[in-house]
Design a protein that fits this description.
The chain has about 425 residues and is of the alpha/beta class. It has 14 helices and 17 strands. The chain is elongated, with a radius of gyration of 26 Å.
């Protein structure tokens, strides 16, 4: 089955909104074994949208569209797609009832124009929207499938996972199951070089790398008649990846680096406190993004000045005078101070030059990450700038990643209790 993605919205063309939907759908369709060879973005214009739909249907079996399902006059995706397949719109009472309940729950009054969202092509599959008002739709005609999804990712993604993916699996005749291997400390090209023979030789399961800022993800996908058989196919492949890249693998299906760190802390009954300078509290913020992090995070201390490094963390003034705020010595004392002054088992620190200008005669991108615990202390010197101008946010984000990874490493050095999950 060949697929195509068509995203609708003038705001996408203007760059006012980043088109994350296309990236999401491309990954998910690939995981289902559906090849995507074209992606298109078109504005809220009836003529151009009609042309784009006709072109897409001339070269694909499955067209997935996002956006343009709202209540306003320029939301014409549903009408255009139905016309292209020669189908008429009919009333869908369930969609209307769900929409009315949504408005009641949120304390809002439903406008008359919202009624148009409760229509669907005759005979279509309707995907009810649990997070908004516009239902999704799947329609078929003459061997073509068109799937319409709402534009907001907070509505589209759960609808895809919960309803559209099972629908598409039924069309492919197979169940596809994926697992994600998370890597840190190795680039995408280096990871691919170590796994190239696996990627080239293995057709089921497949291995595909995806680069994030400072991380690499490996999506391992298997196809089989049912989920248990697909899972069985994945096990030896993931084992082989771990054998080749074990030192870089920080988890499988863990979601994010901060989630992996928090899970490791909670499983072992450990706590951490952060001491941050150039990241301005970013490490603590990312830890608190994880549900249940209150059991792991003792305190987050942002000491942007030397005076506060001394007053709150106990960094020696002589250390600051001799070595400077951006130094291995200061990073270690910050981590030690965070641990000792808050009673946490682990202290982690970040101090560096995020830019855009050098500081203390030290270059942009120089960062030190310190880790302190009764069983392990270390400081890592990092050079995170690429020399491409203002990289402040990128340097900060990468520094946070290294701090979170240091916390994870410290936690993993402690044996997990037998009764931990």
């Amino acid at each position: 089955m060949t697929g195509e993605i068509l995203c609708v919205g003038t705001e996408l063309l203007l760059g006012d909104i980043i088109n994350t939907n296309a990236a999401f759908l491309a990954r998910e369709l690939a995981a289902l074994g559906i090849g995507v060879y074209h992606q298109t973005v078109v504005g809220d214009n009836g003529g151009r949208l009609k042309e784009a739909v006709a072109l897409a249907l001339s070269r694909c079996d499955l067209l997935v569209m996002t956006g343009g399902l709202g209540p306003t006059y320029d939301d014409i995706t549903k009408e255009t797609a139905a016309e292209a397949l020669g189908q008429k719109l009919v009333w869908n009472q369930e969609a209307y009832d769900r929409m009315a309940a949504y408005f009641d729950c949120t304390g809002r009054v439903m406008s008359e124009n919202n009624r148009k969202q409760a229509t669907a092509p005759e005979g279509a599959v309707v995907f009810q929207n649990e997070n908004g008002t516009a239902p999704g739709i799947a329609m078929e005609s003459s061997g073509k499938i068109v799937v319409l999804l709402p534009g907001p990712p907070s509505e589209m993604e759960p609808m895809f996972y919960g309803q559209v993916r099972p629908y598409l699996e039924g069309k492919t005749g197979q169940t596809f199951f994926s697992r994600t291997v998370h890597l840190f400390g190795i680039g995408e090209s280096a990871a691919e070089e170590k796994l190239r023979d696996l990627m080239e030789a293995s057709l089921n399961p497949t291995v595909a790398p995806y680069a994030k800022t400072g991380e690499v993800l490996l999506r391992v996908t298997a196809a089989a008649p049912d989920k248990s058989q697909a899972q069985a196919l994945l096990t030896p492949m993931i084992r082989e990846i771990r054998q080749r890249l074990g030192q870089y693998v920080y988890g499988v299906d863990v979601g994010t680096l901060q989630k992996a760190a928090v899970l490791a802390l909670v499983e072992r009954g450990l706590t951490v406190s952060t001491a941050e300078s150039c990241t301005g509290g970013g490490v603590a913020k990312r830890i608190t993004e994880v549900p249940g992090s209150s059991a792991a995070l003792k305190a987050g201390i942002c000491t942007y000045t030397n005076e506060m490094k001394t007053a709150l963390l106990g960094v020696d003034t002589n250390t600051l005078e001799v070595h400077g705020a951006v130094s291995a010595q200061t990073a270690l004392e910050m981590a030690q101070g965070a641990r000792r002054r808050t009673g946490a088992q682990i202290g982690v620190s970040v101090t560096g030059v995020a830019g855009p200008q050098p500081s203390e005669g030290k270059p942009v991108g120089l960062v030190y990450v310190g880790i302190s615990s009764p069983w392990w202390e270390d400081v890592k010197e990092l050079h995170l700038a690429r020399g491409s101008g203002n990289e402040r946010e990128r340097v900060r984000h990468l520094a946070e990643n290294h701090a979170l990874y240091a916390v994870l490493q410290a936690a993993l050095k402690v044996k997990k209790p037998p009764d931990a999950p």
